[in-house]
Amino acid sequence: MGESLAALGNGFLVALTPMHLLWCLAGVALGTAVGVLPGIGPALTVSLLLPITYSVEPTAAFIMFAGIYYGAMYGGSTTSILLNTPGETATIVTALEGNAMARAGRGGAALATSAIGSFVAGTLATAGLVLLAQPAVALALMLGPAEYFALIVAAFAIVTGTLGDSRVRGLASLGVGLTLGLVGLDPRDGQARLTFGSRYLLDGIDPIIAAVGLFAVGEAIYAAWLGAAAGERVPLKGSLLMTREEWRRSWKPWLRGTAIGFPMGVIPAGGSELPTLMSYAAERRLSSHQDEWGRGAIEGVAGPEAANNAAAAGTLVPLLTLGLPTSATAAMLLAAFQQYGLKPGPLLFSDEPSLVWGMIASLFVGNALLLALNLPLVGIWVRLLRVPQPYLHAGILVLASVGAYSVHGSAADLIALAAVGVIGFALRLRDFPLAPVVIGLLLGPMAELQLTRALAVGDGGWRSVLGRPGAATILTLGLLVAVAPAAVNALRRAPEQERSPTRP
Amino acid sequence: MIRRLLAACALGSCPALASTARSQAIPQAQLREPLTIMAPAAPGGGWDQTARLMQQVIQGAALAPSAQVVNAAGAAGTIGLARFVTAERGNGNALLVTGLVMVSGIVTNHSPVTLADVTPIARLSGEFEVIVVPAASPIRSLPDLVAELRRNPRGVSWGGGSAGGTDEILARLIADAVGVSRDSVNYVAYSGGGQALASILGGHVTAGVSGLGEFAGQIESGALRALAISSPERIAAAPTIPTLIESGVDVSLMNWRGVVAPPGITRAERARLEALVAAMAGAPAWREALARNGWTDLFLGADAFGDFIRDETRRIGPLVAQRKASAVPWGVGIVVAGTLALLLVGARGGSLPAASIGARSRVTLLGIALAALVGLPGLIGFVPSAAVAFTCIAHAFGSTRVLRNGAIGTAFAVAAFLLFAKVLGIALPPLPF
Predict the structure, then answer these.
(1) Per-domain boundaries in chain B
(2) Which of A57, A132, A355, B227 is at 20 to 30 A from B282, Cα to Cα?
(3) Distance (Å) from the C-alpha of residue B317 to the closest C-alpha of chain A?
(4) CA-based Rg of chain B, rounded to a whole angstrom?
(5) Nearest by CB: A168 against B190, B342, B352
(6) Residue A300: enclosing H or E segment and its boundaries?
(7) A492 assigned to some structural domain
(8) A436 φ, ψ (degrees, to nearest 5)
(9) Which residue is closest to A335 within chain B, CA to CA?
(10) Using a CB-CB distance cutoff of 8 angstroms, which residues of chain B are in contact with residue A331?
């Protein structure tokens, strides 16, 4: 550990040279600028900007790269919060409460808690990368598909507590999400499911497109249906950034989000969907402002935003220590390493210490730069909400279609966008909550995939999951967390009733 | 444009690249019109990288006035293939990137369009596959693995990339060659090399199979043991890894990539594209890029490439065709039926907000706008259709000055178009003029 810190010190000497600071700044600025565009997530941002770094010397290139990566993560949240058009799976959950806050005039606070939360989580998780990389990755490799499956089921169990006021409507929404997630090829045998003979549906419905359809398109149709009854958006109410109360309600979610995000980023299950959803569910469970959920609870932005940045740092652990790219963005970074003839893995730290530690140090620096860049930007972004309603809606829908098209360059995705938008409208009209749709859509396919793998690598029966101590433990813990609050409530209520038997 | 500018600045700062650009005598432009290169995959993968490298080299050597990359992702490239065949028929200035995975995708996805419908131009590059086990595995050599496979086919799990891809094809070819039923191959598909690698290193699967590049670092560090490589002969990059053939399994396979032209082009057009691609593949910048990516140069001219595609189709097709159909997808049925039931029950309890005056006309306008965004770009281009949609939506939300809104919408759409298509290089449906 002492060695790591000394090496990190040297890394800072590398990262803090004026030229490298400049590259870092260029990286975070470009990353933010491109990441903020709808439909363009970090992986695409990195791949679009990759050619720029080709002809720069490696250390500068990676410092810039790290900046682009973190910058794109920051930029992605902005559109999610302001326009309800998430550009990547990591910020879908942010849109749930974040856009509700923006609508209620607290867009500035949502952006601020997201920026500061990302800074806190990014910094702590990068520290985790320095101090815990080796043990964390050793532990992560022990987890197989059975454990991932257990983790997802546990997440499902915990999230069911957040289905909204009506269990039936919540479950129906969850079912809609699961159904959307079923579209495409069966991971077991490659059979087409619910594709109605269309080859365009073989790859399934992209969660980003579904989310933008549900949120942005569905919401616009709903607002048109309500007309004047929808009420005006409030561009800004109260202070621009966070109030004292909002600080008080944010710091714990930031820390919890980091604690959830970092380890989940390290495990090679891929993606930031699981950590952001887990954080959302945890915050919703723990919040003392239950009435605000769905109408802009700041915890629902602070937690997931911290979680996705912590997970982003977490994915660097297997990448740098073992050369394992466990997310699309990490795969792009690995490709970049290979462009320079570098092989990430145990040897990288000893072969290229100044590059690796310079890059890690620049993650800290980049995080600080991003905070400095993004907090002043909040005021400018919030002004977007002052655009007159008709133009705001029109602009959002046009950009949503551009974003949807740019994901795969397919007009079929535009049809999916509109179709899911109509479904979203129908659900809103009948008072079905949208959050469970997202949960089902993101977690359903993951659960199925991991179960399929667990059965394939095990003996095929239920013992391939329940027979593994790790998986069984995770399942039990998840179910306990899910059931405990209800049980505690029931126990609390019972003695009260005994004491007051006359109450009807 | 930003990329090009920055790349140009960066080029100036790097003497090695700048000198190669200078030393190369700029050949005569082969095409008079702009070239379109379609990558039938999302940005980032091997096909997209191939297309973008071609774009760079072709523009760098001025082989065409300009080159544009169009992505059309989906269904193992068959969606791009279908679009290419219909939309570009007879276009002598268009190329489509293809490869082994498309050969397999055509069969598994029952694609009505096949590689027999396009004009082969050239095979370009490829990667060989390696079979690995974790260092701690009791399996020491390929014969050990084969023995285990013969003893208990389902007990040997293979971890690799997506289903139907090169990795699964190799596992099935090996099973076939050693007399084990190809359908009993227990292949575990992972999305992306990292997840497969983690599963192999963690000992969750018996063996791993993937491109040499994905495993090279781990093989070098000793975390993985390479049992065999799928090249016909040992390769210079990994001289210690024995081939499948010398280990007694008569199989060779490469994850090749190439380019094809649309159907219905003239002989002269085909010859021109061949010459263009041959000049590109001979450029030092192309060779350097191949080396950087760890791809082997597998250049093959048009006629030989045509024969090669036919051979691969004959060999790979039957291998992936017979996938066991599951009986009744009862899981799907339960989810769909349950959801419908819950929706019906839930809808009764929900409170329907009263539609305000004019709700129907507003929603209809929005519907027209969505239809314009979905259906029109292919017909009249992105900017006009976005302007129409913008005006309709603004109208639906109470801004009735049609001309002014149309102007604002057009300006907005032009800005979005320039940003995506010109600055970022993401093709939107182009302007009709």
Answers:
(1) 2-126+255-321, 127-254, 359-423
(2) A57
(3) 15
(4) 26
(5) B342
(6) helix A299-322
(7) no
(8) -65, -30
(9) B293
(10) 44, 192-194
What number of residues does chain A have? 504
Which CATH architecture best describes the domain B2-126+255-321?
Answer: 3-Layer(aba) Sandwich (3.40)
Q: Is B197 on the interface with A (CB under 8 A)?
A: yes
- Across B320-367, the runs of DSSP E, i.e. the strands, are none
Q: For residue B323, is pLDDT > 80?
A: no
- The boundaries of the domain holding residue A378 are 2-484
Q: Residue A114 domain-assigned? A: yes
**Residue matched to tokens 């596959």:** B129
CB B373 within 8 A of CB B385: yes
The closest of A361, A324, A399, A370 to A116, measured between CA atoms, is A370
Predicted local distance difference test score (pLDDT) of residue A344: 67
Tell me which chain B residue has its CA closest to the CA of residue A213: B370
Within 13 Å and on the Cβ side, how many CA atoms surround B386? 30
Q: Which residue has the higher pLDDT, B8 or B128?
A: B128
- A468 Cα to chain B: minimum distance (Å): 12
Per-residue confidence band for A346, with pLDDT thresholds at 50, 70 and 90:
low
pLDDT at A393 over 80: yes
DSSP-based three-state secondary structure for A269: coil
- For residue range B97-156, list pLDDT tens digits in order: 999 888 888 888 788 888 888 999 999 998 899 999 999 999 999 999 999 999 988 889
Phi-psi label, residue A204: left if phi above 0, alpha if psi -120 to 50, beta otherwise: left
Q: Which of B7, B75, B391 sits opposite A51 (nearest CB)?
A: B7
User: Which tokens is B133 given?
Assistant: 């086990």
- Chain B: give the shortest CA distance to residue A52, in Å: 5
Taking only residues 367 to 386 of chain B, the set having a beta carbon closer than 8 angstroms to any beta carbon of chain A reads: 369-371, 373-374, 377-378, 382, 386
- For residue A322, the chain B residues in CB contact (below 8 A) are 197-198, 201, 218, 223
Residue in B71, B377, B408 nearest the CB of A391: B408
CA distance A35 to A13: 29
Strand B157-160 relative to strand B186-189, pairing: parallel
Contacts of A398 in chain B (CB under 8 A): 373, 386, 389-390, 393, 409, 412-413, 416
Is residue B207 over pLDDT 90?
yes
Minimum distance, in Å, between the CA of residue B149 and any CA atom of chain A: 14
B342, closest residue in chain A (CA to CA): A172
Residues A414, B79: C-beta atoms closer than 8 Å? no
Please indicate whether, in this complex, the C-beta atoms of A398 and B194 are within 8 angstroms of each other. no
The set of residues, in sequence order, having a beta carbon less than 8 Å from that of B407 and lying 6+ positions away, is none
Residue A255: HSE in the Cβ half-sphere, 13 Å Cα cutoff: 5
Nearest partner of A454 among A147, A154, A140, A138, judged by Cα: A147
CA distance B121 to A242: 60
Average pLDDT over residues B404-420: 89
| Domain-embedded: residue A494 | no
**Inside any domain, residue A502:** no
Phi, psi (degrees; rounded to nearest 5) at B364: -60, -45
Return the number of CB contacts < 8 Å for A and B.
336
Tell me, which fold does domain B127-254 have in CATH? Answer: D-Maltodextrin-Binding Protein; domain 2 (3.40.190)
Counted domains in chain A: 1
What is the C-alpha separation between B331 and B326, in angstroms, rounded?
11
Convert the pLDDT of each residue in B194-206 to its tens digit: 778 888 888 889 9
Residue A322, amino acid = L
CB contact under 8 A, B56 and A169: no
The pLDDT of B85-100, averaged and rounded, is: 87
Tell me whether domains B2-126+255-321 and B127-254 share a fold: yes
Q: Is the dihedral of CA B1, B7, B8, B10 positive or negative?
A: positive
User: Which of left, alpha, beta for B188 (phi over 0: left; psi -120 to 50: alpha)?
Assistant: beta
Residue B20 has pLDDT above 50, yes or no: no
ipTM for the predicted complex: 0.81
